Amino acid sequence: MEKKYYLDTSIWIDAYHDRRGYAGEPLGYFAEKLLLSIRKKGDALVISDILIKELERRYSMAEINGMIKPFEDLLIKSISTTAQKDEAKQLARERNVPFGDALHAIIARDNGFTLITRDNDFRRLTDITPYYKPEEVI
Description:
By secondary structure, the chain is of the alpha/beta class. 51% of the residues lie in helices and 13% in strands. The protein has seven helices and five strands; from the N terminus they run βααβααβααββα. The protein has a five-stranded parallel beta sheet, with helices on both faces.
């Protein structure tokens, strides 16, 4: 059975810009290696409505399509429900995390997706769903 990987917005940005971390860690390299590993294993990549909305804050749709198009044969689309959004609003308030991060965690939990992120806010959401850094699953 194929695994379904749900990459947080920051991972897509790491790959797109070949970013480095504060200590010089090759974040873009790890993100790209993960994407290639997912392709090689025949696993799936999940994109959600909230992921696209977060990317739209920084990029045009043409740029977003450029990020995602090379992997379109691996893509599964996930649309968040009203119940998920309501739960995310409450969780964001209670745990002092961004709404988008809470919604990412809920979408991953509800669908059995493997969440990939570097965002420290997810430490406060590990009871919702576990998360991994790209280099932990390559």
